[in-house]
Amino acid sequence: xxxxxQLITLTLFLCSIFIFSCAQRQAIPxxxxxxxxxxxxxxxxxxKFQSKEYRAAIQLYQDYIRIFPESPLVPSIYMxxxxxxxxxxxxxxxxxxxxxxxxxxxxxxxxxxxMLGILTTYYHEGDYKEVLSQAENLNDQSIPRAxxxxxxxxxxxxxxxxxxxxxxVESYIKVYMATENEEGKKEIxxxxxxxxxxxxxxxxxxxxxxxxxxxxxxxIEYLLGVKxxxxxQYEDAVRQLTHFMSTYPExxxxxxxxxxxxxxxxxxxxxxxxxxxxxxxxxxRYETFGAKALKGIELxxxxxxxxxxxxxxxxxxRDTEGSPDTTEAIVNELADRNVTALIGPIINxxxxxxxxxxxxxxxxxxxxKEGVADIGDYVFRNxxxxxxxxxxxxxYAIEHLGLKKFAILYPNEKYGTTFMNLFWDHVIxxxxxxxxxxxxxPDQTDFALPIKKLTGRYHNASDEKTNxxxxxxxxxxxxxxxxxxxxxxxxxxxxxxxxxxxLGTNLWHSDKLIQMAQQHAKGAIMPExxxxxxxxxxxxxxxxNFTETYGEQPGFIEAIAYDTALMVFQTLGSQNLxxxxxxxxxxxxxxxxxxxxxxxxxNPNGEANxxxxxxxxxxxxxxxxxxx
Length: 628
Prior knowledge:
Layout: H1 2-20, H2 38-50, H3 54-67, H4 74-87, H5 91-104, H6 111-124, H7 128-134, H8 145-161, H9 165-178, H10 182-196, H11 201-205, H12 214-230, H13 234-247, H14 254-263, E1 275-280, H15 287-307, E2 314-319, H16 324-336, E3 341-343, H17 349-359, E4 363-365, E5 379-381, H18 386-400, E6 405-411, H19 414-429, E7 433-440, H20 448-455, E8 475-477, H21 482-494, E9 501-503, H22 511-517, E10 525-528, H23 537-550, H24 556-573, H25 580-588, E11 593-595, E12 598-602, E13 608-610, E14 613-618, E15 621-625
Parallel strand pairs: 1-2, 1-3, 3-4, 4-5, 6-7, 6-8, 8-9
Antiparallel strand pairs: 10-14, 11-12, 12-13, 14-15
Helix pairs in contact: 1-4, 1-6, 2-3, 3-4, 4-5, 4-6, 5-6, 6-7, 6-8, 7-8, 8-9, 8-10, 9-10, 12-13, 13-14, 15-24, 16-17, 18-19, 21-22
């Protein structure tokens, strides 16, 4: 690798500039006339340095600094000690001496040399993040040319090592433009071209304004044509390469462009296999969710292909690693590969959606992140949202159960307040009434006070034995998890809040709630996006196929990923829709897609509109309630 071969050169270069500095200035000031023993001590250290007896040289240099701390030679001595440690790969010790020099003599002419030395130690240690951060301390306007060149060469190498190819090429261009000798230009150009090979077509286009150099401009034109050819954008490739050859007829890559043009004369079938990009966190913190979603997507492709063998769909799976930068880069890569639509991601959906919108690629995200669907008309979301749950819950309670009055007992934190407000809004919108609302602290375990406030017993606490509760509501809504709700339900019964409907969120769909609340959870009702025990024929078949394929029962993530993928596959197979624009329109006009997560369509803003399951606790299990 070019980058590995440069490490030795880099260290030797630093040694030379630290010892001799720049051509315009003397690196190590000529020692003034010193009275013995100072002069002798310094000369002994120099002799050890020149003979590469580094341990002895360091000891003598340190003795000199200790005895003559005010000597004008001290800065250059710190630099030499740092350089010795650098040559010996003792990077922490080298860095320590560079810092000592900066702290002791901040105005010395060696300050920029020391700062560059610090960058170099971090680079050799593989701490590229620190290189990128520390480089900001070297002001381009005040550093010599040699330091400027090494700074941006290190930046280019560090960006390359961290996968940020565009920033890497940007740095190499600065080095190339500032380098005066041909050999130096040749070396940096090799690194530039290696890094540029990883760029997307859009990134390559953004390189052109960065340079006025004719050779580089020509290379960028040529590289863009190559990238188009790699992405099977044959017409764009021919047009781009033709423009390159006519504009830069003497360029080094004209012959290569000619050969490539010859291979483009035979185009593949225009009705090539459509590709769908899939963005999932298959490594890192969220890899469990990514693995679950991938199983659902793979099963959807197997099922669809078995029924529609004439539609050949290619799935391109990419690991987002749970990283925003990686996610955005993957969207760019998949755009260059002409994917017709994107599925995912689960994490970093905002970054993916913004990039997909800018590239006009239909994307169906699987996230609860607020505002994702509002990013643009190519962005869709298929997931369980608080809005979706509360609309379903209020509609069912009022229109199917005939309830009118509701109380809300909620945890005073984001989840609780979000669901409390949404439920309240939907109850009012459906003609219902909220008779009482009481919060409790997230860490609270005794709920006597908020329960008493809801039932009118709070103001007559002294007469609690004869004071009967005023339960002027038909149902109580509690937006909390199974552990906390499992504590609340028995306390409601204790304070005589009985014969009312118990309403919760999908978090109540947990055996933990039944174990904790036991008989007090009987009849509790909650919305849910997927119910593996449903008698719905579509769900039954999905659960059977999934279990047969993977040897385990599917959950919510697997189900939502399955439906999302199936929507895309069916859209692609509908009347041979291939263009991104037509796919986007087809998704927007989709009505009542019958998936395993309920009937689904998309609102004009790309938000999923779902008919959720309604579940109820019967004994020690959950059952599905009819509500069509």
